[in-house]
Write a structure and sequence with these properties.
InterPro entries: Hexapep (IPR001451), LbH_gamma_CA-like (IPR047324), Transf_Hexapept/Carb_Anhydrase (IPR050484), Trimer_LpxA-like_sf (IPR011004). This is Gamma carbonic anhydrase family protein. The chain has 180 residues and is of the alpha/beta class. The protein has a single domain, classed as UDP N-Acetylglucosamine Acyltransferase, domain 1 (3 Solenoid). It has 1 helix and 20 strands. Strands 1, 2, 4, 6, 8, 9, 11, 12, 14, 15, 17 and 18 form a 12-stranded parallel β-sheet that branches. The chain has an 8-stranded mixed β-sheet with strand order 3-5-7-10-13-16-19-20. The longest helix has 27 residues. The relative contact order is 0.12.
Length: 180
Amino acid sequence: MPIRSYKGITPKLAEGVYVDESSILVGDITIGAHSSIWPLVAARGDVNRMIIGNYTNIQDGTILHVTRKSSGNPDGHPLIIGDDVTVGHHCMLHGCKLGNRILVGMGAIIMDGAVIEDDVFIGAGALVPPNKTLNSGYLYVGQPCKQARPLNDGERAFLKQSAENYVLLKDEYLEEMAKQ
């Protein structure tokens, strides 16, 4: 797997994690059980820590990074991603915090210090500015993103279903790898 140590710290993967061989994980990264990292993901936990929860999927071409600690920001901004999160293709998440059961639409950008509460749908191409909080239970769209409307019951159910679909897919990939 494409895992590299940085300053003596190596990414830690829980049981059942899939990491595509074309991706790269560097440094202080912890990935929870049954999560998946898909092709061409770049994740650098070099100047702060990164935690990815259980049953979470990070899709193709996504960039994950953190913010350095400094005198003006003594903790910097780690990247924390909760459980049952789907991060769509070609997203950028930088030093932000995502709760549980979130879908980040394709091409979205979430910047330093942003906090995304549980049960949020972020539309494709959305820009979440630094230090913005997205409240639980809503769809957010636009650049910069704005609260569009409350999620309906079907959308709330889909947040968990999307994550479950990717657990099934990563299991298929792991089975194929075991046959080779």
